[in-house]
Every structure is written in structure tokens, then in C-alpha cells.
Amino acid sequence: YLDRLLSPGAKVAEEQERESRIRQVTRLFRFVDQKDVFLKFYHRHLGLRLLYHRSAGQDTETVALQSIADAIGGAAVWRAKTMLQDVQTAHDTNLQFCDAVSSSGSSSGMTVSFSTLMTGAWPSEVMEDIPCRPPAAVVSRCKQYESWYTDRHKGRKLNWRHGLGIVDVKFKCKQRAYSASMPAATAMVLLCFNKVSSLTANEAASETTLPLDKVRHSLVQLCAPKCPILLKEASAAPSTNGESSRDAGGISEAIFKVNESFSYAKVKFKVAVAMPKFESPDEQKETMKKVAIDRSSQLDAAIVRVMKSRKKLGHSELTSLVVKQVCEFFMPQPVDIKKRIEELIEKEYLERAEDDQKTYHYLA
């Protein structure tokens, strides 16, 4: 609900109404037991909104973030704060880079905007790259930016995620110029038609080095009935290699050509610049696994903090104090705390008292 509310398509009469609903959500959030689960999904959704330019705005995101921080503490949302700062910093950095390029006289006809993001703050599943080979003109501009950026920030290293970019592709049809915004992978498939008049999915995959499944998906987007930039023609030789179950539409064996009769009401439009609205069951399971890993780390840290200050404690008292430390984020089960204690004993952070197996000593 909060993700939809923070997206541009939210049905709100005025910005004040949106902010009022955000505060209603965060008031309810105060009563949620598993706040860490909410935060995990919130960070993922925030990353997708910012990465795909589907946010209602920096100010609105800040209102939501501050409301969550008021409910649980600022330390719990440092990643989200860093993500918002990255977006603002990227905007300022791009302006500085453009000024530097203009003053050096090395600008080209291509306009490129870069987002430099902190690896540790952004969710790994959001930042998962798509292996691809970008056009030479893009690679050249990326090298220019990297040289400029590393000169200004000594010791930093840039790891490129070309597959996560958004590309505006300009083309003409029937003497009318269009500008289509699309994911980088889709743009790379479309640019193949600058060299040839027709392609199959396998040929496009070979040319772009994109995974075949991603090429199929891109071709489906480019043939969408709403804005069919490409046309699909069935192959004379149907596939017999057992891929029909994964390729129900016959994408792999079809031949694709540019739609010479393309027409669209708008000269600027988007081609499937879409982000997932909801997680699939597999993605939800994967997220919950990460929550479980984070909880183990939090329990370990809480146990060590308590034992470091008390030096010696019984099992019941230690369990009670640990629950008090982490209950603001989640309510641990006694069996989970016991498992973490056993693990810390094996790692020699704690040891059992010789005269009482339910009493623990802290090992410095």
C-alpha cells in the first residue's frame, strides 16, 4: 500500500492528502511486531522506485522516511537515507560532469546521465545486473565519466551496471520523429536493427550477449500491440528442440522486422519501462531468508552486548534481556535465542559455567 502511495499513479487529490495517508500508515507501523520484515520490503520497493524513476518525488519520499524513522529510530533506515542521498548527489554530479565536458570541448551528440550509487546501501536484488555489451558510443562516454569521477574521488572504484540503465531511442517513421524510453536491454536489442533488416531471438542474443530469456522478453515488449515498433513473422521451420514450454509464443524461432508503418499518438512514449509491482512467491521466500539471516546477526550482537556488560548471566535472564533489545524490530522465539547462544559458545564468545550448565560467562 505504501509503495503504491509513493508512486506517481497514486490516486490522491492533493499532496497534503498523500502525506496524511503516509502518516496513517506509519502510525499503524508502530503496532507491527515484525518491523524488520516491513523494512526489508520497504527498502526493496524504494530502490525500485528510485532506479526506475517511478517515485512521486524526493520530498514525498523524505516525508515517508522521516515518519518511519520517528517510529523506529533513524539508525534502522540509514540505507534508505543513503539511497535518497545517492539520487540527489547523482543529479549534482551529472551537472558538474556536463560542465566539465562542455568546457573541454569533448561533448558529443549523445546525452548520458549517470547514477553513482553506494553498493552497501542499495538492496542486492535491486542492483542485480544483466550481462550485456553496450554500444561503443556508450562505452566511450562511460570511460570518460569514470576518468573524470576517479580523478575527483581518489580511491573509489566504479563497477558498472549497464543492464540497469534507461535509454531514450530516437527514430523516424513516416517523416515523424519519435523518442521511445525503454530499459537498456530492450534498447540494445532494438539497436541491432541499425545493421540488419531482420533478426531472430538467437541472433539478437549473439549480437548483444544478453541472456536469451531477456532477449525474448525485450522482443515481446517491442512487438506490444500498444506501440509495435517491431513486427513478428512466424518461422517456416517450427522449433523441435523441446523449448516450446518456455516459448509458448514462438519467440525463439520467429523473425522480427522493423514496423515501417509504425504510428503513435505521442512523439515521446515509454516501452515497458516497468518495475515489478509485487514480489513473486519465490522472491518473497528469498526476502524472508535474508530477514532470517539479519535476525541471526542482530541476536548475536544483542547477546554479546548483554554478556559483555554483565559478564555472567543465567539462561532465563539472558533471554529476557536479549528480547528487550530486539523486540522493537521483531519478537524472537526462545528457541532461536538458544540456537544463537550455542553458536556463540562454539565460536568461543561465551562459555558455560562448570557448576551450572544454564549459566554463561563472557569470554573477552
Features:
364 residues, mainly alpha, three-stranded antiparallel β-sheet, 12 helices
Structural overview:
Helix content is 49%, strand content 11%. It contains 12 helices and 9 strands. It has helices spanning 2-5, 15-29, 35-51, 58-72, 78-104, 136-152, 184-191, 201-208, 212-222, 281-310, 315-326, 334-346; strands spanning 166-173, 176-183, 198-199, 230-233, 255-258, 268-270, 312-314, 350-352, 359-362. The chain has a 3-stranded mixed sheet with strand order 1-2-6. A 3-stranded antiparallel sheet has the order 3-5-4. It has a 3-stranded antiparallel sheet with strand order 7-9-8. Strand 1 and strand 2 form a beta hairpin.
Strand order of the largest sheet: 1-2-6
Helix and strand run: HHHHHHEEHEHHEEEHEHHEE
The termini sit apart by 47 Å
What is the C-alpha radius of gyration, as a whole number of Å?
A: 26 Å
Counting DSSP H or I runs of 4 or more residues, the number of helices is: 12
Mean pLDDT: 87
Give the low-confidence spans: 240-246
Strand residue percentage: 5-15%
Shape: elongated
Biggest sheet, in brief?
3 strands, mixed
Q: How many distinct beta strands?
A: 9
Structural class by sheet pairing and helices: mainly alpha
* Helix share bin: 40-55%
